[in-house]
Design a protein that fits this description.
This protein is mainly α and 189 residues long. The protein contains 10 helices and no strands.
């Protein structure tokens, strides 16, 4: 007996059109310059529909943007240098990727964006921690969570809040200091 897949609902098609238009706008103009009006126009709908489906720009951004931490291959890195290598990687990612900064800004006030950021660290950082530490389950999740506190806290203070003592630090000093903490979270060093 052949079962047919249910026909897609019109709301699914509308959401897909909004997400496609949002991705195009965010990629072309960045988070700040992209507008709900332009996204709605790109999707061929009224701006109120964007708000109906996503609540606000932050919620839309959290759903539309693709985020890859692009975690480095650490196979050739000495174990004692892995924490520093991760911190250096994240500094470079934060400084070179407007979408990550926009997601962090949005996550502070928007539940959908916060859930997206949590998912990114759970699906991308946690497996790396499992590979590096050899731990699984709650222990690996705790290590990944503690690393996230350092990485996200650093990004928030350096790039969003722009705390002068943190922005004044040279990248090598941040790598040395925060890298030692991340190293400890990974290996109980």
């Amino acid at each position: 007996m052949d079962e047919e897949a249910p026909a897609p609902r019109r709301s699914d098609a509308t959401k897909a059109a909004i997400l496609a238009a949002a991705r195009e706008q965010f990629a072309a103009h960045g988070y700040q310059a992209a507008t709900i009006r332009a996204i709605a126009a790109g999707a061929g709908i009224d701006p109120a529909m964007v708000m109906r489906y996503f609540g606000n720009k932050e919620g839309l951004f959290a759903q539309a943007a693709e985020f890859d931490l692009r975690l480095p291959d650490l196979a050739g890195v000495a174990k004692r240098e892995i924490g520093a290598a991760l911190v250096r990687h994240f500094l470079e990612r934060w400084e070179g990727d407007e979408t990550l900064m926009a997601l962090l800004r949005a996550a502070v006030t928007n539940e959908s964006a916060a859930a997206r950021l949590q998912s990114i660290f759970a699906t991308q950082m946690a497996p790396l921690v499992v590979r590096l530490s050899g731990e699984r389950g709650a222990a690996a999740a705790a290590r990944a969570g503690l690393i996230a506190t350092q990485i996200l806290g650093l990004a928030l203070c350096r790039y969003i809040l722009r705390l002068p003592p943190v922005t004044a630090l040279k990248p090598d000093e941040i790598v040395r200091r925060v890298g030692a903490t991340v190293q400890g979270y990974l290996f109980d060093a």
